[in-house]
């Protein structure tokens, strides 16, 4: 181990909650809400399936957060950072305990996902679920984590955008649709924007520790423009979803005014605590976009 303090006491419940990083949970709720909206537009919404899909998404999100906490902590990349408390990096919990928590969350996601596959009859989704768990662990885990190679945004777009939204709609509808793909792109782009805001905040520490995120490759200025580009891409995807379904889907654009203050902070060079506010706002904007799409599909 390199750089993390030794755990000096048993972590409190509040520590585990903080380590789960609640501010990232909109990235789990949003794709299920948006995918459920697609299914409702096709008159195929099923509350039971939606709740199971939500359990899968939330368990994977928390599992990823604990896995990142463990992997970054034992590598020492959390030794000097701005942001939420990390269990291993702060010494609040032992690496072994955090690792067990991560795999416990993955197990919950796997069981719920298996039930959902059996219920829907989409048995091949078991392979997708297995890939999701492996991708969650190897994001920062293993000897060659792809999150340290600038591929974190690719993981987020695929699994918290395409897979989560299309998978939610698929188990209810029983088929794939271009509408689900357009909605998945919108949610995936905003999920990526959350990660970009996080990595922009940590860019200095990541450079010093050798963690090569996309932000360290783009540089400070390039990452700020990348954040803006993701928001523009989201708006275009929402417009495409409205074209494929109903003009009411344009309610998904509610995220735009919500992120105007954050966009100004990012483009004028905000750092540290300012970017924590951007991270929180981007997560809530993703949830607002998903809710807008859901309501739009219901009205349509």
UniProtKB/TrEMBL annotation:
Chain ranges passing through the membrane:
47-67, 97-116, 122-139, 151-172, 178-197, 225-244, 250-267, 279-299
EC number(s) in its UniProt entry? 2.5.1.74
The Gene Ontology CC terms held by the record are: plasma membrane
Choose any GO biological process term that the UniProt entry carries and state it.
Answer: menaquinone biosynthetic process
**PANTHER family in UniProt:** 1,4-DIHYDROXY-2-NAPHTHOATE OCTAPRENYLTRANSFERASE, UBIA PRENYLTRANSFERASE DOMAIN-CONTAINING PROTEIN 1
Q: What this chain does, per the record? A: Conversion of 1,4-dihydroxy-2-naphthoate (DHNA) to demethylmenaquinone (DMK).
| Protein name listed in UniProt | 1,4-dihydroxy-2-naphthoate octaprenyltransferase
Q: Which organism is it from?
A: Enemella evansiae
The organism's taxonomy opens as: Bacteria, Bacillati, Actinomycetota, Actinomycetes, Propionibacteriales
Q: Which gene carries the instructions for this protein?
A: menA
């Amino acid at each position: 181990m390199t750089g993390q303090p030794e755990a000096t006491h048993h972590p409190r419940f509040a520590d585990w909650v903080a380590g789960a990083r609640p501010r990232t949970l909109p990235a789990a709720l949003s794709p299920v809400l948006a995918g459920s909206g697609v299914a409702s537009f096709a008159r195929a919404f099923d509350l039971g399936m939606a709740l199971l899909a939500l359990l899968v998404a939330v368990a994977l999100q928390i599992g990823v957060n604990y896995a990142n906490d463990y992997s970054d902590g034992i590598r020492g990349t959390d030794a000097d950072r701005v942001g939420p408390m990390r269990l291993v990096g702060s010494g609040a919990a032992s690496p072994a305990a955090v690792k067990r928590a991560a795999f416990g969350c993955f197990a919950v996601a796997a069981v719920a996902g298996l039930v959902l596959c059996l219920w829907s009859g989409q048995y091949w989704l078991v392979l997708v679920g297995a890939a999701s768990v492996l991708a969650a662990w190897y994001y920062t885990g293993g000897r060659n984590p792809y999150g340290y190679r600038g591929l974190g945004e690719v993981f987020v777009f695929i699994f918290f955008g395409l897979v989560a939204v299309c998978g939610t709609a698929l188990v209810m509808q029983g088929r794939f649709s271009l509408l689900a793909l357009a909605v998945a792109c919108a949610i995936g782009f905003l999920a990526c924007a959350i990660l970009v805001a996080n990595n922009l905040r940590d860019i200095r520490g990541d450079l010093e520790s050798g963690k090569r995120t996309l932000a360290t490759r783009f540089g400070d200025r390039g990452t700020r423009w990348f954040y803006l580009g993701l928001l523009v891409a989201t708006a275009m995807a929402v417009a495409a979803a409205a074209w494929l379904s109903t003009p009411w889907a344009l309610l998904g654009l509610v995220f735009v005014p919500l992120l105007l203050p954050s966009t100004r902070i990012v483009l004028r060079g905000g750092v540290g605590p300012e970017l924590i506010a951007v991270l929180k706002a981007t997560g809530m904007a993703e949830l607002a976009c998903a809710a807008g799409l859901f309501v739009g599909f219901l009205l349509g």
